[in-house]
Amino acid sequence: MSDKLDRFVGLMKGIFELDKSDLDFGIYRIMNIRKDEIQKFLSDGLPKKVEETLAPFANNTGDIEKRLAEIETTCNDVGVDVSSSKMAEEYNQLKAQLVSGVDMSALEADVYSALYNFFNRYYDEGDFISKRRYKEGVYAIPYEGEEVKLYWANQDQYYIKTSENFKDYTFKADDYTIHFRIVDATTEQNNNKESNDSKRQFMLYTENDDFPEIKTFEFNEENKELIIRFIFDVPEDKKRKYKEENYKASHDFIYSNRLPMWQTLLAPIPTGKGKDTTTLLEKHLNAYVAKNTFDYFIHKDLKGFLNRELDFYIKSEIMHLDDLDTSNEKRVETYIAKIKAIKRVGHIIIDFLAQIENFQKKLWLKKKFVIETNWCITLDRIDKSFYPEIIENEKQIQEWIDMYAVDEIEQNLDTVGFTNPPTVEFLCQNLNLVIDTKHFTNDFKERLIASIDNLDEQTDGLMINSDNFHALSLITNRYSKQIKCTYIDPPYNAQSSEILYKNTFKHSSWLSLMNSRINLSLPLLSESPVYICAIDEVEQERLGMLFDNIFSDKQIEKTCVTIVHNR
Question: pTM of the entire structure?
């Protein structure tokens, strides 16, 4: 394998994240299904595809030179001049091919180098980044003749993460499964960004007497599982290096107990960055932290984007139009060979990448299942046959005490006093008390809801605990053109609530977040809506341009837009 091909294949492996084939969750399961297919393409299909494309346009100069030497040796042995021998015609043809032809290995190297330069612009550590740089000092954006166009780097992507995502991280080592699990996690609330003094860390869970059944490390030989538990919180000692401590403690537990997979987990492996090495355990500990702290994007049309970018890249950096109608015009044939190879192989790789991205997009856009539904209902709407069960529910009674201080209601001639548990008469006299069905069994909840006629008509409020993108998608049909007033309070993207992204697209990330959510809310608006957004000076100007862009396209009067400027 040539150095250029080797470098390009290494880039492709990084883009396809083949080094993470031991991960056993989410999109990686899909990737693992296609791992063998991708590996085979990179090792066999890719070189063959390039070679087949270049063959008509390139000669193997080594074979030509070898045949010329053979003819010259034969003629010298018999004392005949090459030009007057029977092999003169073949000799002259080979000489002409050597002069006009292009060496296959050199042409292949050019193709792999060009493909590497192209894909390397759009991927960083396996993640797609929307940078339209074609060459130094030259950028381009999609433009269709608009008088004024609002554009930002991530405009053609979905911003898919609006909060920390603490899910089980699972990978394989030999025949064993290793889980990283969060026992407890705290995050900033109300658009506040953690300060340097309150920066949260992943720390190993500390075992305590309150929950003796929860262990920091738990190995089950029968299930072939190792569980390592963490918390995510503000540490008491902010000078401690928890990253190193987490690894050392995990390493020591695995090594000292000689767990069956210890050699696989703790053996040195290359990092891919020079001569540095790490271990499988350390690699996944680092990936676990990154997975839960990065923001993510999904491209809306990756195939179309990369195909357009590839065409522009070829036209601007591979083709040399200045050589036409000059003494160098013969070189155009070389360009054609390279262009065909770059385009054909590039489209195959783009198809692979687009399939993965489209699968993630389908998962993101798919309406999510409602995992739990509860109702808050005042007693006046509940049949009295349910009252005996309600007064027996200690959690509900305690909520009334905490929220409404019902325990302070004393008995007199006109009032039934509070007792614990309260009486049915007490409930009948306080019909504005609210029951929350989360405190009750599913059987009670189902019977209660079934007993209320026209539940939707009687429901005068709806609260959804969800990513706002999915919440809006869920209610689009039910509340279409019914919302008279919308009030949103997004992160201000100031230092106290900045959206972070590894590529530092600060304003662009924020605009992608806002654009998709606002557009999704448009079908809900009534004919004369009011749209209010709380914002401060950091993003006020960009928000105004975004509103102009969104509402003018949808033919909604600008008077429905109000910006609240907070200082």
Answer: 0.71
